Amino acid sequence: MKLIICSKLDRLESNNTKGWWYKMLDKIREFPDEIVFQEGGPCISLYQLTHRHSPENKQDIVVFNNMLRDLESLLEEKYKDADIDKIMKAFQELKEDKPFWNNTLDGIAILANKDRFLIYVLPENVENKLSVGDSFHILPLIKTFQSAEKYNLLGLDGNDFTIYEGSKYELEELEVNEELPKTIEEVLGFEHSEKFLNHASRGAGNRATFHGQGSKKDEVEEDLLKYFKYVDKLVLENFSKLSKLPLILVALTENQGLFRKLSNNTYLMEEGINSSIKALDEGKLTSKAWEILEVVNQERINSLIEDFNQSKANSLGSDDLHKIKKAIMDKRIKIMMIEENRDISEELDKLVTQVIKDKGQIIVLKEEQMPSENGVAAIYRF
């Protein structure tokens, strides 16, 4: 997922609009940014649905301009002493930036105050929403990043492999150290590779079908096992141990079985994608991988709900907002669950920010996933 952040001061240093846009593309950060912990208003949170293509995206500037009118009115109403012209200048400048509006994805989020102006270009839809107060409204961003869980994906066939890092939204092939052998020929040597090719015919999706009986066939299968064992160790040592991400295997059914029997990679997920990596484009790969992760995530949510119910029974959790507020003030919150699309007060925005500041976890759940009807629930540390 692309997270694009630009400081307002950086933007205003340049008179060339295109110049600051391309400058901000280099500023990639993780969420949350330190801006959410800065105290004192006005804290501006703007979320807008955008479109990737014309002609739909022509209306995005119109919607943004209407939201700016509302923003200026709210600033004049709630923060008369603020330098409103200075704050609005960054928004007005963004409105005039055609390269920006021609290169959005499915949504944008802007967090801004008197000193900073952050833009998040989001790969999923958000509802149009504007908030001006003494704290930022960040639940939509939490939900987006919560959906951006990363994973590794291993595409494996009988003579080569590829390794990727992906999320719900994108898939990127990772580079393997050029000094490391990668193909079966490089690993086992030309003689072994020729033996493999001569005694196995290639079927659909690079399927290896072995012919004949006796030692030649056994040697070819043994070579394949040696190669898979090499790939397993390489991926574990050079990728999985470093990233600690779940690993999804993409391979034909027979190769799935062979690889899993010998794998020592504890990050390898039980379910894989039974297909040749070459038979799936990036979109299909990403979609199939996320289907697997969604099942795992639902299992985690089910486990989380069980933990909450047990914690609540032991007075180590609550769905009573007053009790949760007290626990937040005492820095006791381990996990706080909030229902998505629930109307959130500025007070709750402050509480969410405080939980994150105290290293607690915020999880946004759908209404049907929540363990209570109050829209909020928490598990305490102690």
Topology (SSEs and partners):
Elements: H1 8-12, H2 17-24, E1 43-49, H3 58-78, H4 84-95, H5 98-101, E2 107-112, E3 117-122, E4 129-133, H6 139-146, E5 151-156, E6 161-166, E7 171-173, H7 184-188, H8 190-198, E8 200-202, E9 208-210, H9 215-243, E10 247-251, H10 253-262, E11 273-274, H11 282-313, E12 317-318, H12 321-329, E13 333-339, H13 346-357, E14 361-365, E15 376-380
Parallel strand pairs: 5-10, 10-11, 13-14
Antiparallel strand pairs: 1-2, 1-4, 2-3, 5-6, 6-7, 8-9, 12-15, 13-15
Question: Which key phrases capture this entry?
Answer:
four-stranded antiparallel β-sheet, single chain, 15 strands, disordered N terminus, alpha+beta, 60s Ribosomal Protein L30, Chain: A, 382 residues, globular, Translation, Eukaryotic Peptide Chain Release Factor Subunit 1, Chain A, five-stranded mixed β-sheet
Report on this model:
Helix content is 43%, strand content 19%. By secondary structure, it is an alpha+beta fold. It has 3 domains: 8-146, 2-Layer Sandwich (Translation, Eukaryotic Peptide Chain Release Factor Subunit 1, Chain A); 151-280, Nucleotidyltransferase, domain 5 (2-Layer Sandwich); 301-380, Ribosomal protein L30/S12 (60s Ribosomal Protein L30, Chain: A), CATH 3.30.1330.30. The strands form 4 sheets. It has a 5-stranded mixed β-sheet with strand order 7-6-5-10-11. It has a 4-stranded antiparallel β-sheet with strand order 3-2-1-4, sandwiched between helices. Residues 1-29, 199-205 and 207-214 have low confidence and may be disordered.
